Every structure is written in C-alpha cells, then in structure tokens.
Amino acid sequence: MTTTEPTVTQSTDTVPQFFGIKVGETRAGLTAYVDHGRQRIFFHTEIDDAYSGQGLASKLISAALTATRAAGRRIVPVCPFVKAYVDKHHDFDDIVDPVTPEAKAVVESALG
Predict the structure, then answer these.
(1) Residue 73 is part of which domain span?
(2) How many domains are contained in the chain?
(3) CA gap 50, 105 in Å, rounded
(4) pTM metric for this prediction
(5) What pLDDT shows up at residue 14?
(6) C-alpha to C-alpha distance for 86 and 37, rounded to whole angstroms
(7) Within a domain: residue 2?
(8) Is 42 exposed, middle or buried (0-12, 13-18, 19+ CB in 10 A)?
(9) What would the 3-class secondary structure string for the chain be?
C-alpha cells in the first residue's frame, strides 16, 4: 500500500486568500488569511472530518507560517487553531503580533 504525502499550496487569486492541504488530489483543509500591510491575518482553519486526527492541521499551519516568514510578513493569529499552534510552537515568536480590534476589522471588511 502506498501512502500519499500531504501537499500544501497557496492560493493568492481568491478572496480571501488561503493555504490549502491536499491528500492525493483531494483538498483536505485550508487556512484562510488576509494580508494587511506587513501583517498576514489568519482568521479561519478547517480540516475535513474525513481527515481529522491525522495531524494535517499542524502540517498546514506550519507550512503557512513558514511561507509567511519567507514573504517577510508578520503573523496575526485570529484563528484559534493558528493561535494554539503559535502558543505551542515557539519557532515563530519573533514574527507574531497580537490580535487587535483593527486586525479583526480588516478581516470583517475583507469578507464583506
């Protein structure tokens, strides 16, 4: 039996933008964000129930935050999953900004 390693891709041509994780050809989840200035505000993460318990959320968030660092942006963890990840994994402490009312307003404005 062969197993397919999950892949993470970034979609920048959608509103909101997101990082998606696929298992084979099936999208198993995503983490959505809005860029604002130097900040990337992560506001929603979901993993399909069929893929829960496989560690996909951690793989997805790790890849998304690594790409955020590479892009020279700072992380604003509005999403509870992203917040829990940065609280547990301190690799990104130097680029995490606090969640502010302004950050929440940016998300609400972007979602219309």
Answers:
(1) 7-111
(2) 1
(3) 33
(4) 0.94
(5) 85
(6) 21
(7) no
(8) buried
(9) CCCCCCEEEEECCCCCEEEEEEECCEEEEEEEEEEECCEEEEEEEEECHHHCCCCHHHHHHHHHHHHHHHCCCEEEECCHHHHHHHHHCHHHHHHECCCCHHHHHHHHHHHC
